[in-house]
Write a structure and sequence with these properties.
Elements: H1 4-14, H2 21-27, H3 35-42, H4 47-56, H5 58-66, E1 78-79, H6 83-92, E2 98-103, E3 109-119, E4 127-138, H7 141-151, E5 157-163, H8 167-174, E6 182-187, E7 209-214, E8 219-225, E9 233-239, H9 245-257, E10 264-267, E11 285-290, E12 306-311, H10 320-326, E13 336-339, H11 344-349, E14 360-364, H12 372-380, E15 387-391, H13 400-405, E16 417-426, H14 437-446, E17 452-459, E18 464-470, H15 476-480, H16 483-489, E19 502-506
Parallel strand pairs: 2-4, 2-5, 5-6, 6-7, 7-10, 10-11, 11-12, 12-13, 13-14, 14-15, 15-16, 16-17, 18-19
Antiparallel strand pairs: 1-3, 3-4, 8-9, 17-18
């Protein structure tokens, strides 16, 4: 019979010796971890390494594709020798919703990010969702088309910059982007031929926004300026050419095919203005740039709700192209008008009665001048106006606060929000030291409506401040229930001030 100690010794001899801990650790690999632990490791990788991990194993690829949080706030891009390498990264990333393509010679690079965004096309309340964005650089439109075919039906928004020749390849690859909602094409030049026409029977069912832009104004050539007493000097000059008709027709065919469903069209070059006639009567928003040598008519756009008109660089006082365009506007439901250039005569034209439905008006005086009397005339013809933005009046006499405060009550029967920027520099943090404070106080207290005035100005230490003057209490519950406070907060045109909080002032 074995004693207890001898039995223990016998059993120990029969069992295999335990492996050293070092040997166990040497046998462990990344793939031996559980998914939860593996995700923790992947979350610490940079963009390039995360893509490399996804390409290294089917299991890792499944994790990188199905967990958008891994791609949140990633910095830097991954570079490749060819388009196939770029595609290999996109295949291990989550399905891409937004694609930004830059055409750059000899470049194959990509950056993927996960962001939270509001989808404003889902009324009545925007829905915040996780959106996967991919920014890629490719050398030509052929590579761009390859990327588009790879991403396929999932794409919802796309922007391509640096386009020259090769629009045909882009259009052909877009045929399968059936989820596409927004398309922006930015052309490097406007003199490239294109013999392709978008098939009129082919409609991308969800597309509601198209933006077109010519980034270049011409082509750069060399001339030689020779003087008898000086050495030859070489300088670059820009030669302007006519817009290539075949390119315009190609873009026109795209707009015509979708004219019955487009809600927003942006034509961000005066050379694109002739395409206005390709927009359907149901269009809701239109943004255009006008110039002195091209015109268009808006008579057929009866359903237009918002119109933005930007003037091409040129004669700062000449608003004739803007006036001509607005004289053709017969939109009974137009609610918002944005003008980047407004002189005295144009301001008076606004009060002629054709725009009586306007509820929001944003005008700039930076490149022209208009008087306070002309503003009175305009407002008299805009009886439904609720919001007024006057920008670019800094440095003028009288200043914007004085000009606005002189408006009569008869001119502002329904006005609830006024926004302006003042260049007056306060030498104190006290709001009452602002030179326009007394004028604005008097206006707010006498206004027929609960007027809210947003004044943006600089302090002595160069800080910018937002003041919102109103008659009601600044208590949070009161502010939250005020629709005009919400409207005053939506000052999208002042994007440079969007991160500066309001300082609310109750006037009594």
């Amino acid at each position: 019979m074995l004693t207890r100690s001898r039995k223990k010794a016998t059993m120990s001899a029969l069992l295999p010796a335990p492996a050293p801990m070092k040997d166990l650790l040497d046998k462990m690999t990344l793939l031996s971890l559980r998914d939860q632990d593996l995700l923790q490791v992947l979350s610490h990788l940079h963009a390039k390494d995360l893509g490399a991990a996804g390409r290294a194993s089917p299991r890792l690829a499944a994790l990188t594709r199905s967990h958008p949080s891994l791609w949140k706030d990633l910095k830097g891009s991954a570079e490749f020798d060819n388009v196939e390498g770029l595609l290999s990264l996109l295949r291990v990333a989550p399905p891409v919703d937004r694609l930004y393509v830059y055409l750059a010679p000899y470049t194959h690079a990509s950056e993927v990010n996960s962001i939270r965004s509001s989808r404003e096309w889902r009324p009545p309340i925007p829905v915040e969702v996780v959106v996967i964005t991919a920014t890629v650089s490719v050398p030509d439109t052929k590579c761009c088309a390859t990327v588009l075919r790879e991403l396929g039906r999932r794409l919802e928004e796309m922007e391509i910059s640096g386009l020259g020749r090769g629009l045909k390849a882009i259009f052909r690859s877009l045929r399968h982007a059936t989820s596409l909602r927004s398309l922006r094409l930015r052309f490097q030049s406007y003199f490239s031929e294109c013999d392709f026409r978008w098939p009129q029977a082919l409609v991308l069912p969800r597309m509601h926004t198209v933006a077109l832009d010519f980034e270049g104004q011409g082509f750069v050539g060399r001339v030689y300026d020779c003087d008898e007493d000086e050495e030859d000097e070489e300088e670059n000059v820009i030669h302007y050419t006519e817009t290539e008709p075949t390119l315009l027709e190609a873009l026109r065919s795209l707009l015509l095919a979708h004219s019955q469903q487009l809600q927003h069209v942006k034509l961000q070059s005066a050379r694109l203005l002739p395409l206005v006639d390709s927009c359907g009567s149901t269009l809701r928003q239109l943004s255009v740039e006008v110039g002195p040598w091209v015109g268009a008519e808006l008579r057929h756009l009866r359903g237009l709700n918002r119109l933005s008109v930007f003037a091409e660089d040129g004669d700062e006082a000449d608003a004739t192209p803007v006036r001509r365009l607005l004289q053709t506007c017969r939109c009974p439901v137009l609610e918002r008008l944005d003008l980047s250039l407004c002189n005295d005569q144009l301001m008076r034209d606004l009060g002629a009665g054709a725009l009586a439905s306007l509820q929001c008006l944003w005008v700039s005086g930076a490149r022209a001048s208009w008087r306070q009397e002309s503003l009175e005339v305009a407002l008299a013809g805009l009886p439904n106006l609720r919001s007024l933005g006057v920008l670019g009046l800094q440095g003028r006499t009288p200043g914007p606060a004085q000009m606005i405060s002189r408006l009569s009550n008869a001119a502002i029967p329904k006005l609830g929000v006024v926004v302006f920027v003042d260049s007056v520099t306060c030498k104190s943090d006290t709001v009452t030291d602002y030179l326009g404070f007394r004028d604005l106080r008097d206006m707010v207290l006498r206004a027929p409506m609960q007027l809210h005035v947003v004044a943006v100005f600089h302090l002595w230490n160069e800080r910018k401040r937002h003041f919102l003057f109103s008659r009601h209490s600044t208590v949070e519950s009161v502010v939250a229930s005020c629709t005009l406070c919400a409207e005053a907060g939506d000052i999208g045109i002042l994007s440079e001030f969007k991160d500066i909080p309001f300082e609310r002032i109750q006037l009594e």
